[in-house]
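A further point concerns the way the authors explain their paired sequence and structure data. For illustration, here is how one protein appears when written out as sequence plus structure tokens:
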Amino acid sequence: MNPGPLLSAAASMAIAVAALAVAHRLRPAVPEGEDPPEPHPAIYGIGSGLLSGFTLLTGFLIATGWAARSTGAAPPGGLYAADIAAGAAVLLYPSLAGLPFTPRYTTAVCLFAALVGYTMSLALQLRP
């Protein structure tokens, strides 16, 4: 069994949860009886745009990496660097958006980060 995708998923989970913990630690304390401030409404569109871009780019790299086995035409190396940058942005987005550091959200971020890390690893491994 290839441990690369599992290690990538674990590393992605560690990055996302560490960023969530650091953001929670740096965020000012909310006074008793007050609700935490809501993120700006414009930030919601950023997350869906980041995830869409990452999904499309990673899917493209997986498909062309697989096809390059028979055609020999490989995507440029810069696309792989862009995919890693997009993956990092997707992993850091929950902490920057102000998601609270609770067990519920930490679990959700971990599961999401595992998928991001696994698919990113697949795209890199299929590179010819």
In short: The chain has a mean pLDDT of 88. Helices lie at 4-26, 42-71, 77-96, 103-125.
